[in-house]
């Protein structure tokens, strides 16, 4: 059966990951969460007190970082491993979200992650979500989605997600984090977040998750 590459880019908390994961499951594709990779790098930098302005420190740290995704046999969830340790829950916390955009703006970090992402998605039949998938990682992806949503709705969704993980955070703090990340992600020098010319806009503000999944699956079918 013919398979394609699906790139899902957009702002934080628009529902990219949840949708991409479900689309992948429905199509029998693999799913790669590139945000998790930048979050894992951020966790490593935090744990090892890496000075992000020191190029040598950053290069050395990157040499020591190994990121992989493993499927949890109990619930089938794809989980992020950093140097063999499961960091899935840790990287979702707000203190990581508050630092990740600074770390992901570093050119060396991006080059290392993009190289890994291209390897991971070499075979077709992949749904990859992030900020630069359609523009940099897989500019030839057959289907590119650019997700947007109202900032308040995004903040509410993120709060529910954090609450479910036991991270009780004030809505104002989440709004601040989302605004800060959007600004840093769209204005950084190295591969800023922007819509690829051939990407399809999907505003998820008033869409249910099922509707989002259905829409992307229809578009994927059309792109075959
Ligand atoms: O998707 P998620 O919110 O987990 O991404 C966390 C952060 O990682 C983003 O705010 C962005 O700074 C960075 N990121 C990136 N490029 C990607 C994926 C994520 O710069 N492809």
Describe the structure.
This protein is of the alpha/beta class and about 220 residues long. The chain has a single domain (about 5-224), classed as P-loop containing nucleotide triphosphate hydrolases (Rossmann fold), CATH 3.40.50.300. It is built from 9 helices and 8 strands. The chain has helices spanning about 15-25, 35-45, 55-65, 95-105, 105-120, 135, 150-165, 170-185, 210-224; strands at about 5-10, 30-35, 65-70, 80, 85, 125-130, 145-150, 200-205. Strands 2-6-1-7-8 form a 5-stranded parallel beta sheet. It has a 3-stranded antiparallel beta sheet with strand order 3-4-5, with helices on one face. α1 (about 15-25) crosses α9 (about 210-224), α2 (about 35-45) crosses α4 (about 95-105) and α4 runs parallel beside α8. The longest helix has 17 residues, at about 170-185. It is globular, with a radius of gyration of 17 Å. It starts with a strand and ends with a helix. The mean pLDDT is about 95. Cytidine-5'-monophosphate binds near residues 12, 34, 130 and 132. Cytidine-5'-monophosphate (C5P) binds near residues 34, 104 and 185.
